[in-house]
Amino acid sequence: MNKLTPVLTVKSIEESLTFWVDKLAFTVTAEMPEGDKLGFVILQKGGVEVMLQTPTLAAEDLQAMTMKFQEGPAQLFIEVDDLDVVIEQLKDLPIVLGPRTMFYGMKEAGYIEPGGHFCMFAQRVATEAS
Q1: Which single residue of 21, 49, 69, 108 could bond 122 by disulfide (Cβ 3.0 to 4.6 Å)?
Q2: Tens digits of per-residue pLDDT, 53-70?
Q3: Which helix (DSSP H) or strand (DSSP E) does residue 99 occupy?
Q4: Which domain holds residue 103?
Q5: In contact, 84 and 95? CB cutoff 8 Å
Q6: What is the pLDDT of residues 68-103, one digit of tens each?
Q7: Residue 130 domain-assigned?
């Protein structure tokens, strides 16, 4: 495993950016709109990365988990060298999201760990822009 990135579900990304970007000097490295507002962003400062997403965007990916996110389970984004190895290690568990390749250059597969928390494992892959 290479990196762990928290994914925080927030009511308003724009309001949260005041904290992360304006006050803590994080940089937005990727964003995805949701209507006329932001639905998802990746923030980076040095070796620290944080992702923010709205509950409605989370619901699009994980419809059955919407209420769980509002109740507070954590979402973990774990960068790995080889996603296929992780999928093999977890072959007795259902993949609840993916595998999929995202616009920000990651191939991902998501699982619910026994405590009810969502774990997204992701491998960096080449994108058309890179």
Answers
A1: 108
A2: 888 776 666 665 545 555
A3: strand 97-101
A4: 3-124
A5: no
A6: 555 557 788 989 999 999 999 999 889 999 999 998
A7: no
